[in-house]
Structure to design on (225 residues):
């Protein structure tokens, strides 16, 4: 899987896979360290649980767009499989259009939620952005509960907190994954739409893990017989 493609696409794949793997590894290491601290040294890493929750959110939300790219989301294709190519393509386009609308709505909501923590104006309009709400109250001073402020992020104090120091990590940092992941999701669904339109794919989901597992079981049973 890693390094299976070359060129810009392969590099992007490696970056995404590396980020996801690093987050998963850090979650595991931090949880293990906290268990050792608690049961061996009768201590506790106070910020471990909160940081693990943030990393899990990054893992899931970034992984969602990556799974769209790799066509490995769970899906039901029983109806698609019995349709001829033309209707199958139409259904695939309708499905990806619905997903695009959903992800665009999610992108608006995610940006509006994150923007106030970044001292930025959220969008106006209930469903679709009609402008920016300049009257929204900034919440850039909001901090997380336990994770301490990192020294290399002190530049945020002058940028969005009017020079005031942060004692804990500002919420703008961990919540950044919300608009970022939704923007990636929109981009990935747009890529799938182009693939279906060009005839390079006939569905959004191309993963058949259950069928592959059943084939492995059948092959294993044949070998035993």
């Amino acid at each position: 899987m890693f390094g299976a493609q070359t060129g810009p696409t392969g590099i992007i794949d490696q970056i995404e896979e590396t980020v996801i793997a690093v987050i998963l590894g850090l979650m595991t290491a931090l949880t293990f360290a906290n268990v050792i601290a608690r049961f061996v040294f009768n201590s506790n890493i106070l910020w471990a649980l909160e940081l693990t929750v943030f990393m899990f959110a990054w893992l899931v939300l970034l992984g969602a767009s990556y799974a769209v790219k790799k066509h490995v989301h769970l899906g039901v294709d029983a109806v698609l499989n019995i349709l001829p190519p033309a209707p199958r393509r139409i259904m695939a386009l309708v499905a990806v259009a619905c997903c695009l609308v959903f992800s665009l709505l999610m992108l608006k909501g995610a940006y509006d939620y994150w923007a106030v923590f970044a001292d930025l104006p959220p969008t106006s309009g209930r469903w679709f952005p009609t402008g920016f709400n300049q009257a929204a109250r900034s919440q850039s001073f909001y901090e997380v509960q336990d994770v301490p402020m990192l020294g290399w992020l002190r530049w945020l104090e002058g940028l969005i907190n009017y020079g005031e120091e942060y004692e804990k990590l500002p919420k703008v940092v961990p919540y950044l994954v919300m608009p970022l992941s939704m923007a990636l999701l929109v981009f990935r669904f747009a890529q799938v739409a182009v693939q279906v339109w060009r005839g390079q794919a006939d569905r959004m989901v191309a993963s058949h893990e259950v069928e592959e597992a059943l084939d492995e079981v059948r092959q294993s049973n044949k070998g035993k017989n």
The first helix runs from residue 7 to 39. Residues 75-218 form one domain. The two ends are 32 Å apart (CA to CA). The helical segments are 7-39, 48-70, 78-81, 85-115, 155-160, 177-197, 209-224.
